[in-house]
Design brief:
The structure holds 2 protein chains of 2 kinds.
Chain A lengths: L6 H10 L4 H9 L22 H13 L4 H4 L5 H8 L4 H22 L11 E5 L5 H14 L8 E4 L1 H4 L6 H13 L3 E4 L14 H14 L5 E6 L1 H10 L1 H6 L2 E5 L4 H14 L3 E2 L1 H13 L2 H4 L2 H21 L6 H5 E2 L10
Parallel strand pairs in A: 1-4, 1-5, 2-3, 3-4, 6-7
Helix pairs in contact in A: 1-2, 5-7, 9-10, 13-14, 13-16
Chain B lengths: L1 E7 L5 H13 L3 E6 L6 E5 L18 E8 L6 E8 L11 H16 L2 E7 H6 L8 H11 L1 H13 L3 H18 L14 E7 L6 H11 L4 E4 L8 H13 L4
Parallel strand pairs in B: 1-5, 1-6, 6-7, 7-8
Antiparallel strand pairs in B: 2-3, 2-4, 4-5
The chains are: A alpha/beta, B alpha/beta.
């Protein structure tokens, strides 16, 4: 039989710099001895071909043992690649992978007549602003679609104002409409805690009740994600004890570390064809470390704002020069990042 | 939408081929490419091929470029949308740049997920090698992967048809994998469900030793369709278009 090494495993090794492209082909051919690669400096690597009989034995051994499901049930499409490209969020990525695997395998268990528990995919996202909640939700919708868990894979993003109406009955009507829009995809309720803020007489409660009913009635047809800040979401779930049990997946989005924020900055700049000088990079690290907690909680948005400001400063700096090179146009210097965020 | 990936070794002429196809289809001299698909970034590239530049060091593609083109079958009104992917070279080096490594991993993902694979080989380099050989390890790897497509299908068939409870347990993970790769909602044909159509483009035919190289290539990669790549005088658009149309009509194994 041809390769039984999961292609995903090979993709991961390539990304980690543990193997070259030619080695990847060897692995796919059935040579499963992956050399530990400690020196990643454009080094040449000579693939060691194991004897043919050894390869056959190794392949047949793998066929005999039940495969590790986590290696196989990950769709290899653009969305999965998009998720793996996000900086940090390692725990979130693992949870998403497990969820997709579980939903797929449960579906297969059902198909072969084994008892299968209904996989409930409704989730709560908790995290500070700019930690990637909406981005992950958008990618998740596409992944669920690639994995055939959701039909369309679109994301309907709503907030309190989109759900809560102005008179009795209006809220249920508006909420049901949003649920209908989200069928086949994900309904993402941002700052969901605001639905419970107005007290018992507020129409927000009606929106929650309608959502809970839709979660039960149309549980296979859409995924509901309630998102918000850590503390507020904890309060919200305490106010509605029935809600907590209806959301088996609680994903906590951690704040990015300084190194991760710098990586994000470099990615943002690369997309816009800018670069940081070494001094500017140091300056950025300093600015991020110096920002107090309240500003730091802006996370990726804080980085974006710093960069936007630096790009404006650079433009002003260059406008006063007489000759401008291509490098000048691309480089952001420490001077451009000099000022603290207001 | 159908997908086609253009792969090959270093300086084989993959980008030039993409530019030729794009220019031939659109008649435009500039087009917007999606760089590193999946990210919101694009840039406009000139499609004009400057043949004089071939004496100089060609630029190195470090990211995946995607372009979507409408292709017509001959003079008929039948039209298909194709996403074409230009890719970085596959070789035995490991880049220190994480993004470049991601791009190489993405090339492998595309090899598994695309409907058609155009494998570009610099035949003048192949021809300069004495005796057999001249093909790089990566070229042989691509050929191996593509020529085992029938075995992928038979593995899939065997697993899907297993009916004993023991087999069910053994193959659950594989079934899930084939299901996922084989049934996405975009109408693409992925790993396991069917395998990509594959052809080799013998490139740089206007350079010395190219004819010898093409002959060696045809012998070494037996059973594979070998198309002649674009030259100064001759466009291969029609043959490539025919190949893509045939690929899109292939029935799943």
């Amino acid at each position: 039989m041809p390769h039984l090494v999961a292609p995903d495993k090979v993709f991961a090794l390539l990304e980690d710099g543990q193997i070259s492209a030619t080695r990847a082909f060897s692995l796919l051919r059935g040579d499963t001895t992956v050399p530990a690669n400690t020196d990643v400096h454009n080094q040449s690597e000579k693939a060691k071909d194991s004897p043919a009989d050894e390869r056959t034995e190794s392949a047949s051994d793998q066929q005999q043992t039940p495969p590790d499901v986590s290696d196989f049930v990950w769709p290899g499409g653009d969305a999965a690649a998009e998720l793996s490209r996000l900086v940090g969020l390692s725990e979130i990525k693992v949870t998403v992978k497990e969820t997709v695997a579980l939903a797929t395998i449960q579906k297969y268990r059902g198909k072969v007549g084994l008892c299968n528990e209904q996989t409930v995919l409704h989730m709560v996202f908790k995290g500070n602003p700019g930690t990637g909640k909406t981005t992950v939700a958008r990618i998740l919708a596409k992944i669920f679609c690639e994995a055939d868990i959701l039909e369309q894979g679109h994301l309907v993003e709503v907030e309190r104002a989109d759900l809560v109406g102005e008179y009795i009955g209006h809220t249920a009507q508006r909420t049901r409409q949003k649920v209908r829009d989200a069928l086949g995809g994900i309904l993402f309720v941002d700052e969901a805690y605001s639905l419970a803020r107005g007290g018992d007489k507020d129409f927000g409660k009606e929106a929650i009740d309608t959502l809970v009913k839709a979660m039960e009635d149309k549980k296979d047809e859409f995924v509901l994600i309630l998102a918000g800040y850590n503390r507020e979401m904890d309060w919200f779930l305490r106010q509605n004890p029935g809600l907590r049990s209806r959301f088996p997946l609680h994903l906590k989005f951690p704040d990015y570390s300084t190194e991760e924020l710098v990586q994000i900055a470099e990615l943002m700049l690369k997309e816009r064809q800018y670069r940081l000088t070494p001094d500017a990079r140091e300056r950025l690290v300093h600015l991020l470390e110096a920002s107090d907690d309240s500003k730091r909680s802006g996370n990726a948005r804080l980085v974006r704002n710093i960069l936007e400001r630096a790009i404006r400063k650079q433009a002003l700096r260059l406008a006063s020069k007489t000759a401008i090179s291509k490098d000048d146009l691309m480089l952001l210097t420490a001077a451009d990042l000099k000022e603290k965020m207001p | 939408m159908n997908k086609c990936v253009i792969v090959g070794g270093k300086k084989a002429g993959k980008t030039t081929l993409l530019m030729q196809i794009a220019a031939g289809v659109t008649g435009k001299s500039q087009l917007t490419l999606e760089v590193s698909p999946g990210r919101s970034h694009s840039r406009t590239e000139s499609l004009r091929v400057d043949w004089r530049q071939f004496d100089q060091e060609p630029a190195e593609t470090r990211e995946i470029h995607k372009i979507v083109l409408p292709l017509r079958a001959g003079h008929s009104s039948q039209q298909q949308m194709w996403a074409l992917y230009d890719t970085p070279a596959l070789n035995d080096s490991i880049s220190t740049d994480y993004r470049a490594r991601q791009a190489v991993a993405d090339v492998f993902r595309l090899l598994f997920s695309c409907r058609a694979v155009l494998h570009v080989v610099d035949v003048s380099r192949v021809g300069q090698h004495r005796g057999s050989g001249g093909l790089s390890e990566a070229d042989r790897g691509i050929y191996w992967l593509m020529s085992h497509k029938d075995k992928w299908s038979s593995l899939r068939k065997k697993i899907m048809q297993a009916d004993s409870p023991k087999d069910e347990g053994r193959f659950a993970g594989y079934r899930a994998m084939f299901h996922l790769f084989g049934n996405n909602n975009n109408g693409n044909h992925n790993f396991g469900a069917s395998n990509p159509s594959y052809c080799v483009v013998a490139n740089k035919m206007n350079l010395p030793w190219a004819r010898v190289g093409k002959q060696k290539l045809t012998e070494e990669l037996s059973g594979t369709t070998v198309l002649t790549g674009p030259t100064r005088r001759q466009s291969t658009m029609r043959r490539i278009r025919d190949f893509l149309f045939t690929s899109s009509k292939m029935v799943d194994a």
